[in-house]
Amino acid sequence: MKTITITKSAGFCFGVRRALQLAEQTASANKKVYMLGEIVHNPRVVNDIKKTGVIKINELRPQHNGILLIRAHGAPRETYKKAEKLGYTIIDATCPMVKEIHSIAREYEQKKFKIIIIGDKKHDEVIGIKGNLETEPIIIAKKKEITPKAFYRVSKAAVVVQSTQNIDKVLDIVEKLEKHIKKVVFCNTICLPTRLKQQEIQELPATQDMMIIIGAKSSANTKRLYELSKKINPNTYWVNSKTDIRKSWFKNKQKIGIGAGASTPEYIIKEIASYIRSI
Q1: Inter-residue contact 187 to 161 (CB < 8 Å)
Q2: What's the pLDDT at 40?
Q3: Cα gap 258→254, rounded to integer Å
Q4: Measuring CA to CA, how many Å separate 17 from each of 12, 82, 266?
Q5: What is the per-residue pLDDT for 125?
Q6: What is the pLDDT at residue 16?
C-alpha cells in the first residue's frame, strides 16, 4: 500500500497568498485593474486571476481611473513613476520580504558599497531589486562568473540575494567573492518560506522511494526544490499537473514524497496526491 507524505511548507508562501488576496479584493471592487506580466509563475493561478477580471498587459499606456497591481516579485521605481504619470492608481502587492531586500540594498548603496545581487538576471524579482537602486549593481547567478577582472575596482561590496535562491550555492559564491574583494558584507535575504521548503526537501527525499515536486517550469523556486531533491533521491520528478505524471514511475514504489513551489496552489497539490492514490 502506498504512503504519501507532503511537506508541511508545500504550496503558497505568505507573499504569494497576500498578492492573490489583494488582486481578488481589488478586482471585486473595481472595473479596470491591470497587471504588468503574470502575478506569479504558475499558469493555472494566472488563469484563476484572469477570471476575477484582472487584465494582464505588456506595457503601460495612458489610463483614466485604471488601477495597476504591482506583482509579488516587485517592480523597478520607474514603473511606479511612469504608471502614476499615465494616470494609474497603484496597488502594491510586492512581497514584504522582497521590499526588505530593496531597503537593505539601498541602505548599503547610500553607504557607498557596491551592490552585488546573487540571482537570475532575467527574473522579475532581480529586475525589481536592480530597478530600485541609483547605481548599477553586479548580478551573479553562478560562481564561474566571478573573475578578477570583474571586481578589480571594487573595494567594498554588499551582497543581497534573490529570495528564492539555494543557500549552499549562495555561500559558495560569497566565499569566492571574498577572495576578490577586500570588504564583503553578506546579507542573507533568502526568505523564511524558501529556507523552510529547502530544509524539508533536504530531509524528506532520503526517506522516500520517490519524490514528486509540483510547480510550473517557469518557477525559479520550484526548480531549486527539484534540483535539491534530485541530488538526494534520483527518483525525483517535476510536474505541474496530474497529466504530467506517468504511471510507470510508481512501479515498486511504496513511499512517495511530495513537495511544491511557492506559487503552487493547494488544490493542485490535492489533485495530484489524489491521482497518485488512485494509481
Answers
A1: yes
A2: 86
A3: 13
A4: 6, 27, 11
A5: 96
A6: 94
Residue 148 sits in the same domain as residue 183? yes
The closest of 39, 29, 33 to 88, measured between CA atoms, is 33
CATH number of the structural domain spanning residue 52: 3.40.50.11270
How far does CA 100 lie from the centroid of its chain?
15
Element containing residue 183 per DSSP (H, E): strand 183-186
Q: How far is CA 163 from CA 86, 110, 120, 191, 195, in A?
A: 31, 22, 11, 5, 9
> The domain that contains 185 carries what CATH number?
3.40.1010.20
125 carries an active-site annotation: yes
**Same domain assignment for residues 45 and 30:** yes
Residue position matching grid coordinates 535575504: 189
The SS3 assignment for 161 reads strand
Q: Looking at residue 11, what DSSP letter applies?
A: S
Q: Which amino acid appears at position 49 of this protein?
A: I
pLDDT at 108: 98
The answer to whether 13 and 222 are in contact (CB under 8 A) is no
Instruction: Say if residue 69 is in the same domain as residue 101.
Output: no
- Residues 65, 31 within the same domain: yes
Catalytic annotation, pick one of 38, 78, 107, 125: 125
Range of the domain at 128: 97-190
- What's the pLDDT tens digit per position in 101-115? 999 999 999 999 999
Are residues 203 and 181 both part of a single domain? Answer: no
CA–CA dist 237, 233 (Å, integer): 10
What are the mean pLDDT values of the chain's consecutive 10-residue runs (279 residues total)?
94 94 92 89 90 92 90 96 95 96 98 98 96 97 90 94 95 96 97 96 97 95 96 98 96 96 96 95
